[in-house]
TrEMBL record, chains A, B:
Transmembrane segments annotated in the record for this chain: none
Domain of life: Bacteria
Molecular functions (GO terms): glutathione transferase activity
Keywords from the named record: Transferase
Organism of provenance: Streptomyces regalis
Protein's name in the database: Glutathione S-transferase
Region (Disordered), start-end ranges: 258-292
Family annotation (Gene3D superfamilies): 1.20.1050.10, Glutaredoxin
Record-linked InterPro entries: Glutathione-S-Trfase_C_sf, GST_Omega/GSH, Thioredoxin-like_sf
Signal sequence, renumbered to the chain: none
A GO-annotated cellular component: cytoplasm
SUPFAM superfamilies the record matches: GST C-terminal domain-like (SSF47616), Thioredoxin-like (SSF52833)
């Protein structure tokens, strides 16, 4: 499982289950977890696209100082995500070796999978949420008091219906579609998933023909949080039922998003009344090996 | 093994062994196998790049009538190449179910692998040669009496040193290089093979920058003998240690060689004093499913 909820592989088709821990961290603390600077730690893997979304939101909103970050090793073992990139194989601040320990402190013998992104309450060491879809929305709408000056509105009220509709299609056919194709165990299943994925990509390309972003003037923020080394090592070394040699392919030399795209010529105000974020804090920069 | 000599896969790096049966079919019959119309059968798999070279030469030289063709199933079983595409799973003319039977008639208990391309003597049913490099050269130089009118000279005397030198590099770094990369069992081995392959491709691209072909005005002949269905099914379904799901990827929609390349603008006389071949005989046309 790469994150984003528990995923079941095997002889049946790919299924992504809903996140089990769905408490919300909110301004009013309705679930017992009020927004508070320095209290929580966001645990991610840079290999995980679902976690990357949370990392990007945190960065655009300038929440680095308020919500600290733990980065798991892209290679899991049978106890799932682990902190083997850190000194003594132990996450700083949280002091745990496996993300699963925070799950255990929250619910003993929880039988589900351990996934990222996850937010852990630092004082108690307990998992608060692994609800990958909700985390990003709440960073945008509930953590506003801690946003940087000039932070863009990532989920503007007037656009929510449109955003939700577009994202439902993207989620089903693209985000999950690539897993359905990649983890297919039969030819028909694979071809069906590919057909659906590429049909959706064509529809999205049509949508993007005349506008810079999928919805409105929404905000760019992709690139400097991406760690290709982690992404590739995770997918090619962990899933040995698909890639038994564990060999990681070389490339790409230069991802497409670094080449001039001229899409700014389509106009729009990508940060609305806000401003772009500053550079990534040094401690969180992607090492040269994984940088595109 | 896809053909072109016995190949050893496993926990050590990829090795291609020399063909074991190296008798030559020549104009003077020096090895007991004189060139003779209708006597021999060329056994190939359209999945095998080494066999494809023999098929292309045969076609350019107009040897279809003189040297008949047997096409093996792209999916081997543990007895190797078989004729399961044919009625009763038996090769017409040769009457055998496995290419290995022709090997057995030649040498009892031959311990090596069964490879294509192979030429079988129809009257005796015995294998003559599986020397994939020699077969093509001899079609060009020894079978001249049976060439079609206007057949190009595929191995002109004045160019042989240059052809041999270029082909030695292509053979080592490209033809075998893709196998070394694809069948690598370790990361370093894979990366080394890739580096060597792409370094060679760059050198070849430099060579091709100012001239249409790798050597002289040499002859085009690529495309209508290529069966993508066979190629893909072979490599993705046979090599289960690399691709355990056996899923065959979709695509490509349109191979690059069908898009206009404008390379004819570099000039040259691709067929020399000869002419292009006619259309592929109907019985040997690549079925629509495998056609690019």
């Amino acid at each position: 499982m790469s994150g984003g909820g528990t995923t079941a592989y095997g002889r049946k088709s790919f299924q992504r289950s809903k996140a089990h821990f769905t408490d919300r961290i909110t301004a009013d603390g309705q679930d017992g977890w009020p927004v508070e600077a320095g209290r929580y730690r966001l645990v991610v893997s840079r290999a995980c696209p679902w976690a990357s979304r949370a990392v990007i939101s945190r960065r655009l909103l300038g929440l680095e100082g308020a919500l600290s970050l733990a980065i798991a090793d892209p290679i899991q073992d049978d106890r799932s995500w682990r902190f083997t990139l850190d000194p003594d194989d132990r996450a700083p601040v949280l002091g745990i070796r496996f993300l699963g320990e925070a799950y255990d402190r929250r619910e003993t013998d929880y039988p589900g999978g351990v996934s990222v992104p996850a937010i852990v309450d630092v004082p108690s060491g307990r998992l608060v949420t692994n609800d990958y879809q909700r985390i990003t929305l709440d960073l945008a709408t509930e953590w506003t008091a801690l946003h940087r000056e000039g932070a863009p509105d990532l989920y503007p009220e007037a656009r929510r219906d449109e955003i939700d509709a577009v994202m439902a299609d993207v989620y089903e056919d693209v985000n999950n579609g690539v897993y359905r194709a990649g983890f297919a165990t039969g030819q028909d299943e694979y071809e069906g998933a590919c057909a659906r994925l590429f049909r959706r990509l064509e529809l999205l390309a049509q949508r993007l023909a005349g506008q810079r972003y999928l919805v409105g003037d929404q905000t760019p923020g992709f690139g400097d949080t991406v760690d290709f080394d982690h992404i590739k090592r995770h997918y090619y070394q962990v899933h040995s039922s698909i890639n038994p040699t564990g060999i990681v392919p070389l490339g790409p030399d230069l991802p497409g998003w670094l080449t001039p795209h001229h899409r700014q010529e389509l106009g729009g105000r990508p940060f609305g009344d806000g401003t772009p974020p500053g550079p990534v804090p040094e401690a969180e920069q992607v090492p040269a090996r994984g940088r595109p």
